[in-house]
Please model this.
Amino acid sequence: MQNSPSKSALLIMDMQNSVVSRFVDSEKALLPFQKAIEAARSHAIPVIYVRVAFRAGYPEISSRNKMFTGIASRAGSAVAPESTMQIHESVQPRPDEPIVTKLRVSAFTGSDLEVLLRSRQIDTLILSGIATSGVVLSTLREAADKDFALTVLSDACIDAEPEVHRVLIEKVFPHQAEVVPVDTWVASLSN
Model:
């Protein structure tokens, strides 16, 4: 039996206003994301956006969750303004591109991402996002456990800690994914 060709999707993760404003100090840092999106669109590769968002009062956040409890305690009972949850204007989705809302670090946790991917017969994920040590790492690990083939776009990942980013990109991710800069990935699409 012959294997069918793989079907890919580009994940643009946590590129919402509240995250971009904390991690990105220059519009130049967003150029690799823009180039990846443009290449995916021109090669009919679905682009799927992932964001994190909660209901008013943050009922989804357990007091045992060290990372997310801080978000809830800083916000109190108010919900974050919708504008902070919107995808950053530099990487805006088209009307036909889905925005998946998650409830934890991994793009899969609390979201319908896997259902969306399986319904489209997608078996290969191209990962990008903020932060390398957050959503990219967590999604990579879970996606690998779900048997997706993986590519990480090394320069379309941003982390607050350059050394952590380097170690993940150079030493950790290659065990489960192909790790390439955007330009290399774009060039491979023409082959």
